[in-house]
UniProtKB/TrEMBL annotation, chains A, B:
Coiled coil: none annotated. One of its GO terms (biological process) is proteolysis. Residues 8-118 form the Caspase family p20 domain. It comes from Sphenodon punctatus (Tuatara). Pfam families: Peptidase_C14. InterPro entries: Caspase-like_dom_sf, Caspase_cys_AS, Pept_C14, Pept_C14_caspase, Pept_C14_p10, Pept_C14_p20, Pept_C14A. SMART domains: CASc (SM00115). One of its GO terms (cellular component) is cytosol. This is Uncharacterized protein. One of its GO terms (molecular function) is cysteine-type endopeptidase activity. Belongs to the peptidase C14A family. Residues 141-197 form the Caspase family p10 domain.
Length: 203, 203
């Protein structure tokens, strides 16, 4: 866990909450306490954590990496000196080549940070809610929604990579979707369907 | 549904498969048949589709937008003339401001396209599989994995936007995680937990 405290009141509360859940879920924390590094120390700290995992003799079923700090547009998380580290360079540190110990194990990243300076003013919902106040008058209140919500985007490949299509059968993702939907399409939640489509493309 | 056929053998099979599932799931297709546009026609075609949704008197429970074509690094999907349209400009066409009819309804995007030119050579798994061949000899086969798999990344905000943190309580996402995990943390799948965290941040 990394948490930058400087200029981030509320950080201690986040650390406390995360520690509670680390304990409840039985996560070990080989890198010791929460770190609060400079920008250039972020990647080496994660590499050290990764190497400890690789060298461990224990069975490891899951890895949770929590990064809480200021952030900047373009995928940067900042150290306490305001210097950024690129998330696109951080994620691969734990891939199947560099972290064989975590092959086929979930690698969960929690990124609590800004991703730019835009603020969403939201939009009035077309729904109206009647709510009861303490003196029991009905008051009409208009819900506000974020500008964008309820999106579910499925890509056939990872960012930067080619996508597979067979000249005779058609695209690989569509083929696997067809297989998975044929068995589970009328019963499962869309999230479970596409998790299955994703894993089935790997094997 | 959009599907570029030029230089994409197998495209007809994809269209057929998708049409089967559009029908099975009972999707109406107000924009008619599958389109095969030039690059500059993609956004106007989607705007027309969106306007038909907005003007519909029917209840609409879900919207599925399937875009199948060549693609290019940086988030571009190409028309049949090779001119690209930016996905970052396409997604907002259906947001809560521009498409009020779909407020609180799932907007599902299937993007079957390349996202760059990289090819993943993969990595040998640390597992070994014994498989039986037709003549019943046991053969050791080494599984190959993609370089990156089993990642689950949670961001506290949308790309480009600020993230909320209360000076006293701590970060909004961590606060909601704590609430959701307290009720469901020991029972639910991680995907369901963070779907709940996401929706609870909206309301």
């Amino acid at each position: 866990m990394m948490c930058v405290r400087r200029g981030r009141p509320g950080a201690e509360e986040d650390i406390q909450t995360m520690n509670t859940w680390f304990n409840k879920f039985g996560f070990a924390t080989p890198s010791g306490q929460c770190i609060d590094p400079d920008g250039k120390e972020i990647k080496p700290a994660l590499e050290k954590f990764r190497d400890q995992i690789n060298q461990s003799n224990d069975d490891i079923s899951c890895c949770l990496i929590t990064l809480m700090s200021h952030g900047r547009e373009g995928g940067y998380i900042l150290g306490k000196d305001g210097i950024g580290a690129s998330l696109e360079e951080i994620f691969p540190l734990f891939n199947n080549v560099l972290c064989p110990k975590l092959q086929q194990k979930p690698k969960v990243f929690l990124i609590q940070a800004c991703r730019g300076g835009k603020r969403d003013a939201g939009v009035s919902s077309t729904d109206q809610l009647s709510i009861e106040t303490e003196d029991n008058d009905d008051v009409d209140e208009i819900r506000r929604l974020p500008t964008a919500s309820d999106y579910y985007v499925v890509y056939s490949t990872q960012k930067g990579y080619v996508s597979l299509r067979n000249d005779v059968i058609g695209s690989r993702m569509i083929e696997i979707m067809d297989q998975v939907f044929s068995v589970h399409g009328m019963e499962w939640h869309i999230g479970d369907l596409f998790t299955k489509v994703c894993t089935q493309q790997i094997w």
